[in-house]
Amino acid sequence: MAFRLTTAGESHGPALVAIVEGLPAGLTVEKAAIDADLRRRQQGYGRSPRQQIEQDEVEVLAGLRHGRTLGTPLALLVRNRDHANWAWGMSPWPPEGDPSGKGTRQVTLPRPGHADLAGALKYGLSDVRDALERASARHTAVIVAAGAVVKALLGEIGVAVTGNVLTEDLEQRVDEARADRDTVGGIVEVRAQGVPPGLGSYASKEERLDARLAATLMGTQAVKGAEIGEGLALADKRGSEAHDEILRGERGLYRETNRAGGIEAGVSNGEEIVVRAAMKPLPTLMRPLASVDLQTGEPAEALVERSDTAAVEALAVVAEACVAWELARAAHEKFGGDALGDFVAAHHAYLERIDWQPRTR
Ligand code: EPS
Predict the structure, then answer these.
(1) Which 3 state secondary structure label does DSSP give 351?
(2) Local confidence band at 138 (pLDDT 50, 70, 90 cut-offs)
(3) Residue 261 lies in a domain
């Protein structure tokens, strides 16, 4: 079965949900590992007080028995504790009783940079909340939960994926921005070690591993740029300086440089996968930008509501999960197997055939 990830959930609705299809049977999944990644995503400098309300923890509704996958769809759930404060405003059914709590008043002041205006126009909304709730990055919690599961699968074939923040002086930039009631973005990098050559394909755009990694990063809230390896900087180099020469050593073919970021022609080449994502400053500002009240048509200031000053460290964890998902999907396309042992055996046989071993730098 093909790998597929379907998510649902609004920021202040009852819960976030992910259904993961295609996992081989027999994979050991640890709740502690998933919860640890959920916690990593919640931490980070500059997050909003919302993170004190949420204590993200995964629940599994299907697809697992005694900690091992059954080869059936895996259903993951992360509750929104804050929903208790939005029970009327975000009730899935027509709410009963008098309006109470948060989300009872219509939002009509779209924030530049958020989904507000686009959603209101696209769906003809009178309450912008109908758009912003799903567009919120809150939903990345279940992406991280799914990512933790596939990191366990990748671990079975010796692949490790790690996300980090590249932005320097992040804490200072956050402090300064917060004092100005402003927000900041930043750059994150994800590296994957142990990825064998041959994942992805040059046969079509959809199969190219670099295109898939760029799409999953660009599909993440607030990401405005993605690059693989030296990316944009390669445009200024000569061909003789831009490519990674092929060498032969005791452990097979390898490269001394990795400007390609481990991917050539949309296919992994056995070097470390290196991708970066640029995050824009978050669009909810405590000192709001100019907007227009969609109800009156009059100039106004954009919506002000509790938000993060920065979520760059969270993005590093989310990007790690996104990259892990695409690598696991590509690995499963290559090695197949609806039972874990078959997947691992196919990977082993392939490495023997190509005489390749992961290099540690
Ligand atoms: C978000 C706004 C904030 C963030 C939220 C994403 O939430 P709230 O509007 O409830 O203050 O804290 O992120 C999360 C809750 C999370 O867990 O990442 C937004 O508008 O995107």
Answers:
(1) helix
(2) very high
(3) yes
Average pLDDT over residues 338-355: 97
121 alpha carbon – ligand 1 mean position (Å): 23
How many domains does one find in the chain? 1
Residue in 49, 285, 263, 280 with CA at minimum distance from that of residue 177: 285
CA–centroid distance, 311 to ligand 1, in Å, is 9
- At 217-227, the pLDDT tens digits run 999 999 999 99
Here the tokens at position 153 are 């699968």
- 17 Cα: distance to centroid of ligand 1 (angstroms): 16
Ligand 1 lined by 48 (C-beta under 6 Å) = yes
Phi-psi region of 288 (alpha: psi -120 to 50; beta: other; left: phi over 0): beta
Quote the domain boundaries for residue 289. 102-353
* C-beta 344 within 6 A of ligand 1: no
**CATH number of the domain where residue 340 is located:** 3.60.150.10
What's the full length of the chain, in residues? 361
The pLDDT of residue 251 is 73
71 CA distance to ligand 1 middle (Å): 33
Q: Kindly report the pTM of this predicted structure.
A: 0.97
Tell me if 302 is assigned to some domain: yes
Residue 166 counted as domain residue: yes
Residue with CA at minimum distance from ligand 1 atom 5: 138
* The pLDDT value given to residue 252: 80
Mean pLDDT of the chain: 97
Q: Is residue 308 a contact partner of residue 210, using CB atoms and an 8 Å limit?
A: no
Are 344 and 157 contacting, i.e. CB atoms less than 8 angstroms apart? yes
State whether the beta carbon of 320 lies less than 6 angstroms from ligand 1.
no
Q: 222 — phi, psi (to 5°)?
A: 75, 0
